[in-house]
Write a structure and sequence with these properties.
alpha/beta, three-stranded mixed sheet
Length: 273
């Protein structure tokens, strides 16, 4: 129903012959298997179909991936459809994509003895794999993996007609940032600078290799309120004082301003991961 509603909006936009292009924003996370064993590779293929291709394929290609349809049919999970549904979805392909990327999906096989047939949850298709080499944001509990941006870019280039796209969300939430306020009152968020730098570096590498990425938006410009944790984690280039409502640029704000003004990404003295 989400895909149908989306397609009808796209169709209406084009019917109105408006001056512009239309796209949508998806959460895309590259899926990595624990190993090259057949069971882990199958878990990754299933997870990729469910978490990535289920919305990406109808959005860009106007069709559902065959593997996903087969997988859902095997588990008696296909939704009821009308005969014209696929015709509508086929007309809803977008002109460009927005991509939200925060962390990858790492999976491993599901032990056969623990599988339900038909499936009762996503854990019947794959299980989370805790990669021992991961780099974590401990405040959000998310893995930091900048190369995921590059892998997404190559996937879009190779499998989705190199459709134009931009990074619509990417960022790092940190709790108690007042710990990093210096004598001048500025948050010294070098961790955020490193995070943005590493993701931009991989985005630029992808662009150099032909990816059609045209922009990068940090989540977010200013510290914002979250449905899940209020103002616990701060994400912005600018700090928001909850008492005075004053907005103060952090170190990262000055850094990104210089990057934009120069058009160049400076080197950081650390190893890229």
């Amino acid at each position: 129903h989400t895909c149908l509603a989306h397609a009808k909006a796209v169709i209406e936009f084009r019917t109105l012959e408006l001056d512009g292009k239309i796209g949508n924003i998806l959460n895309l996370s590259p899926v990595y298997p624990r190993s090259e064993r057949a069971e882990d590779l199958k878990a990754a293929k299933d997870a990729h179909a469910i978490h990535v291709k289920s919305f990406l394929d109808p959005t860009v290609h106007g069709t559902y991936p065959e593997h996903l349809v087969t997988l859902l049919r095997e588990h008696d999970l296909l939704p009821e459809t009308e005969t014209e549904d696929l015709e509508i979805i086929a007309q809803g392909a977008v002109d460009f994509l927005g991509v939200n990327y925060y962390q990858p999906i790492r999976v491993k096989e599901v032990p056969e003895a623990e599988c339900h047939h038909p499936a009762q949850s996503l854990e019947d298709f794959s299980r989370h794999y805790d990669w021992p080499e991961k780099r974590m944001n401990p405040y959000r509990g998310w893995e930091i993996y900048p190369k995921g941006i590059y892998d997404i870019a190559m996937m879009i280039k190779e499998d989705y007609n190199n459709i134009p796209w931009f990074i619509s969300e990417n960022g790092m939430g940190v709790a108690e940032e007042e710990r990093f306020i210096d004598a001048s009152g500025e948050v010294q968020d070098d961790y955020r600078i490193e995070f943005i730098h590493d993701h931009l570096e991989y985005a630029l590498q992808a662009i150099e290799e032909g990816a059609n990425c045209f922009g990068y938006h940090l989540w977010t410009f200013i510290d914002c309120w979250s449905w899940l944790n209020g103002f616990k984690n701060r994400y912005g280039y600018y700090r928001l004082d909850l008492e005075t409502h004053e907005r103060t640029p952090k170190k990262s704000a000055h850094w990104i301003k210089d990057v934009i003004a120069s058009g160049e990404l400076p080197e950081l003295n650390h190893e890229r991961k």
